[in-house]
């Protein structure tokens, strides 16, 4: 599937910057004083990149992901996604923006337990009204087929295995055909075999033109990602491309 | 240290603490208000009514003089004897408009020892040619006003009101539309009547509340009076210690008791609901406490402690509120029964019961969730995170909901969320449904009452009834009335008091007293529906048709076909019961009962030797509107005045209907107030359910925000859930309203007209409640929905 910029211009140049974080600082106030989660960092990601953000617990990687998804706002600095300065949007505008531009995948899958798998996938379409009503079900089935669980479409999430639930969550993340998929420890609750399959799904998405930013702390993901950004104490301490994967991505883009 | 945790939990979860305390306070309020009202009313009715020293019995004689009174008072078993006279008179309240009055003639106002009253304004003893009035009689008249009255044998006389008194033994005059006046014997002479007493009222000295004993003593006195050379026409023994409107107070108390029980149940349900949710939030903490060594009993103890603290806080709120409501209700009921609350203090036992309820109900209601919650293992508690991790049991409802097609996912979410916590849903729906059923029943009973009254008045084909104070020649009266323009049909009837004669060990004793109406067999003025047997027909001689009130009286026990002996004055005759009719709203006419019977006019004349006179007539007019009939009645008043014919009243049929309709207004009002209170509780239950539900699903709502749900979408999902719960409760409320209407309708019908009401279930009641429940649902779910929509995704994802 081709990806499009906010003005509808086709993105054929994989090097175009889709995500830009400029001098982001995030501080939290608590009883013990001020805690700096992100300390003036810059971060960029281009279309069809698969970026892994790694670091120890408390390094600021989840805060960084929250900035990208408009889940959290910076104390200072700018968050520009596909040309939109999302740090200037209010909560309601952010919710709508998120539904259209970002797909989220969580560690505990977070499928809504009272909706069937296919209904979970259609839900973001119902919220955002981008996909016409008569195409939503068909699109959901296609997405479930892509992740290999179309046969589970009409089951409640609790009847699925962890791996299947995470696949359903990845299908849901693509519901409105967003440019960016954000994944917070998506393999943290999966066995290694299922985790590998999930990472492969993400890699497949980048081949299809999506940008995936994934937070992880537990394993070596260099076999799948195109770049690894390492955080420590709220600062970027390394930003290293994984050449082979990057080439593979661009070759297919 | 652990108690510090309990207190801090309560402080941190302020909303849940407030909800729990409010729920318990509600139960205390319900019980407290009932018990306070009950304690005050039962005490005050004694203070007021028994405080008037009501007569145990009244003997009607030819003449009572002071020698007879003294002689009777010296008889064994007699504490007090006093002479009285009661005259039916009329009081002018507008041009040509009269109101019936009862004029009580007292021997010595300064030394009344029975049937006393309390002065309120002006004099307590009228001088000659003055009058005292009972305070509930003439609400627009007071001391200094001059009124015109007329007695049966007198002419119009103007006399000043010199005092307003409170006679707690009288039913409120405004309700029965009667004026109570009090005059001296000399005033009676001045009014045109013979200045003599004819009632001997007595109070027995022993066992004053035992009717059998009183009857026995009264019969002994009757014999004694007869030995003194006097005749005794009647002995009347009222139900001892019973206020004339006691049945209405009992009806109100019954409703109030029902409300108290309801409040107690609802309180328990709410508490169980809230504690259940509170424990669901504490599962992790329970796991942690167990992991560091706490035993199940210690955990349970902690939460029972919390519940007891809730109970104590609720007592602080519930006790004063219950006391306030109880006093308010007692004052309301007292006004309805014409007595004063002299002391509104509440006995200590009421406080004791409130404390017991405040502490035991929450403990009982919370016992199951606490015991269950505290038994959770460390492992189970630590596995309780995220959404969708708990296995969902699939029930029939789930299967049906899963098959729903053509519904948007947000609406599906709302629908399925409703059925997630089924026990909580059942409790909330139950509370709302009870409120709805009460509301609809109140309206249904009100409408059914009016319909029953309407139906019964369709059986009366006359526009007015004239009651004469004494008999007049029937032909003369009929001619006079026929000459009034607008009158199309006239019937002259005879109405007399009958006393049933019973055989007791060979002696004849008096039984039930009731009005017997003699009417032409061919009369078309009334067509009462038959309950049993038949109506009067041509050829009937001593046939009698009784109304359902008489038929149901425990003192009657006569079946169709049975003979019955009746005494009219001194004459005894035998009649055969041929039928029973349903006569809703038969006038009580001072007997305290609406028992009455119908016989052929000729047969009554033959049995009583009263021939060719009338005491009661029914008139039909050309048109039936209020204004037209009133105009005709005013012409009639002038005609009767000219002919010097004394009547108690000319009562318009529409007016009589209105009086009857108004009898239930208070009951319906109380029911509606109850319904509103229960609905408010329902709203509280729904609000608590929704806020708990939103709290439990905070993470889920955050996920929805994360995948694109706008503030509006979240609001819609939560509010729709509230509306679905409301509509579910509406369905159950509609179903419940049918049996509830039958029970309340039967109770109201039995108390007021001794029959079942013709029940009606108007769509307006159901639609009205549907609208109300929608408003309640939206209001009750808006705040939780708004709070949910305000949470940022980051806050939500960090939520534990």
Description:
By secondary structure, chain A is α/β, with parallel strands linked by helices. Chain A has helices at 61-68, 91-101, 117-128, 133-146, 162-173, 192-207, 243-252, and strands at residues 17-30, 33-46, 50-55, 76-81, 84-85, 102-105, 180-184, 211-216, 227-232, 235-241. Chain A has 7 helices and 10 strands. The longest helix of chain A has 16 residues, at 192-207. Chain B contains 24 helices and 20 strands. The longest helix of chain B is centred in the last third of the chain and has 43 residues, at 711-753. The radius of gyration of chain B is 34 Å and the shape is elongated. At the A-B interface, helix 2, helix 3 and helix 5 of A face helix 13, helix 21, helix 22 and helix 24 of B.
Short key terms for the protein model shown above:
heterodimer; A: 253 residues; alpha/beta; four-stranded antiparallel beta sheet; 7 helices; 10 strands; B: 800 residues; alpha+beta; 24 helices; 20% strand
């Amino acid at each position: 599937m081709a990806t499009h910029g906010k003005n509808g211009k086709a993105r054929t140049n994989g090097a175009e910057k889709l995500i830009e974080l400029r001098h982001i600082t995030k501080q939290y106030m608590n009883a013990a004083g001020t805690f700096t989660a992100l300390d003036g960092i810059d971060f960029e990601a281009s279309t069809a990149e698969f970026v892994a953000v790694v670091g120890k617990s408390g390094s600021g990687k989840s805060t960084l992901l929250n900035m990208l998804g408009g889940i959290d706002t910076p104390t200072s600095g700018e968050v520009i996604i596909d040309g939109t300065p999302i740090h200037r949007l209010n909560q309601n505008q952010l919710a709508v923006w998120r539904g259209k531009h970002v797909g989220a995948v969580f560690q505990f899958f977070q499928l809504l337990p009272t909706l069937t798998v296919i209904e979970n996938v259609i839900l973001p379409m119902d919220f955002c009204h981008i996909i016409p009503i008569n195409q939503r079900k068909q699109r959901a089935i296609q997405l479930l087929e892509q992740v290999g669980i179309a046969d589970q479409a009409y089951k409640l999430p609790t009847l699925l295995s962890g791996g299947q639930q995470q696949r359903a969550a990845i299908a849901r993340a693509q519901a409105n055909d967003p440019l960016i998929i954000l994944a917070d420890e998506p393999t943290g609750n999966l066995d290694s075999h299922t985790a590998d399959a999930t990472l492969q799904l993400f890699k497949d998405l980048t081949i299809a033109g999506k940008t995936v930013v994934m937070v992880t702390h537990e394993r070596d993901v260099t076999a799948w990602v195109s770049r690894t950004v390492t955080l420590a104490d709220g600062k970027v301490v390394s930003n290293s491309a994984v050449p082979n994967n990057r080439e593979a991505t661009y070759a297919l883009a | 240290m652990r108690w510090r945790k309990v207190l801090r939990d309560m402080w941190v979860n302020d909303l849940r603490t407030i909800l729990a305390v409010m729920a318990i306070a509600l139960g205390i309020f319900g019980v407290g208000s009932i018990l306070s009202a009950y304690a005050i009313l039962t005490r005050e009715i004694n203070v007021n009514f028994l405080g008037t020293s009501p007569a145990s019995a009244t003997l009607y004689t030819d003449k009572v003089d002071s020698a007879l009174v003294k002689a009777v008072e010296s008889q064994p078993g007699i504490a007090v004897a006093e002479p009285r006279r009661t005259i039916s008179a009329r009081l002018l309240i507008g041009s040509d408009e009269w109101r019936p009055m009862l004029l009580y003639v007292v021997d010595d106002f300064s030394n009344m020892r029975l049937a006393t009253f309390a002065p309120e304004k002006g004099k307590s003893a009228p001088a000659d040619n003055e009058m005292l009035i009972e305070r509930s009689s003439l609400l627009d008249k007071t001391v200094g006003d001059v009124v015109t009255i007329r007695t049966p044998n007198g002419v119009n006389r103007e006399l000043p009101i010199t005092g307003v008194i409170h006679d707690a033994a009288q039913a409120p005059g405004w309700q029965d539309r009667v004026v109570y006046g009090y005059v001296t014997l000399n005033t009676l002479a001045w009014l045109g009547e013979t200045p003599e007493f004819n009632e001997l009222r007595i109070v027995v000295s022993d066992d004053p509340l035992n009717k059998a004993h009183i009857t026995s003593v009264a019969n002994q006195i009757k014999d004694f009076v007869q030995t003194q050379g006097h005749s005794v026409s009647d002995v009347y023994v009222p139900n001892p210690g019973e206020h004339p409107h006691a049945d209405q107070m009992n009806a109100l108390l019954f409703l109030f008791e029902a409300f108290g029980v309801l409040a107690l149940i609802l309180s328990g349900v709410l508490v169980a609901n809230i504690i259940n949710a509170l424990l669901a939030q504490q599962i992790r903490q329970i796991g942690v406490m167990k992991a560091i060594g706490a035993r199940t009993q210690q955990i349970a103890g902690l939460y029972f402690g919390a519940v007891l603290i809730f109970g104590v806080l609720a007592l602080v709120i519930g006790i004063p509120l219950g006391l306030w409501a109880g006093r308010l209700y007692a004052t309301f009921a007292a006004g309805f029964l014409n007595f004063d609350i002299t002391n509104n203090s509440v006995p200590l036992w009421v406080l004791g019961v409130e404390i017991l309820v405040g502490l035991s109900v929450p403990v009982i209601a919370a016992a199951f969730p606490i015991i269950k919650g505290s038994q959770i293992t460390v492992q189970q508690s630590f596995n309780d995170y995220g959404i969708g991790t708990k296995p969902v049991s699939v029930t029939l409802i789930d299967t049906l909901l899963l098959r729903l097609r053509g519904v948007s996912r947000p609406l599906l979410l709302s629908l399925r969320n409703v059925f997630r916590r089924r026990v909580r849903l059942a409790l909330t729906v139950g509370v709302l449904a009870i409120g709805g059923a009460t509301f609809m029943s109140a309206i249904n009973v009100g409408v059914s009452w009016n319909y029953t009254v309407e139906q019964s008045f369709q059986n009366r084909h006359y526009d007015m009834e004239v009651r004469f104070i004494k008999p007049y020649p029937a032909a003369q009266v009929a001619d006079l009335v026929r000459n009034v323009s607008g009158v199309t049909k006239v019937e002259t009837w005879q109405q007399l008091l009958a006393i049933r004669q019973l055989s007791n060990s060979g002696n004849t004793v008096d039984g039930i007293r009731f009005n017997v109406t003699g009417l032409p067999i061919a009369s078309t003025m009334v067509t009462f529906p038959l309950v049993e047997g038949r109506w009067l027909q041509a050829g009937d001689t001593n046939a009698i048709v009784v109304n359902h009130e008489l038929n149901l009286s425990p003192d009657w026990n006569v079946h169709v076909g049975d003979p019955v002996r009746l005494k009219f004055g001194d004459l005894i005759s035998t009649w055969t019961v041929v039928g029973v009719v349903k006569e809703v709203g038969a006038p009580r006419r001072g007997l305290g009962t609406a028992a009455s019977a119908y016989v052929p006019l000729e047969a009554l004349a033959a049995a009583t030797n009263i021939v060719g006179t009338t005491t009661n007539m029914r008139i039909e007019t050309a048109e039936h509107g209020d204004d037209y009939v009133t105009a005709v009645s005013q012409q009639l008043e002038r005609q009767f005045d000219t002919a010097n014919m004394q009547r108690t009243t000319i009562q318009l049929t529409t007016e009589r209907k209105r009086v009857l309709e108004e009898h239930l207004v208070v009951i319906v009002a109380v029911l509606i107030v109850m319904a509103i209170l229960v609905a408010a509780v329902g709203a509280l239950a729904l609000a608590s359910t929704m806020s708990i539900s939103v709290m439990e699903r905070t993470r889920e709502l955050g996920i929805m925000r994360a995948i694109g749900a706008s503030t509006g979408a979240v609001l819609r999902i939560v509010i729709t859930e509230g509306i679905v719960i409301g509509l579910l409760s509406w369905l159950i409320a509609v179903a419940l309203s049918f049996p509830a209407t039958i029970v309340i309708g039967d109770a109201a019908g039995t108390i007021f007209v001794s029959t079942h009401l013709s029940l009606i279930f108007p769509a307006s009641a159901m639609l009205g409640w549907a609208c109300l429940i929608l408003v309640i649902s939206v209001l009750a779910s808006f705040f939780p929905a708004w709070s949910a929509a305000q949470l940022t995704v980051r806050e939500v994802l960090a939520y534990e």
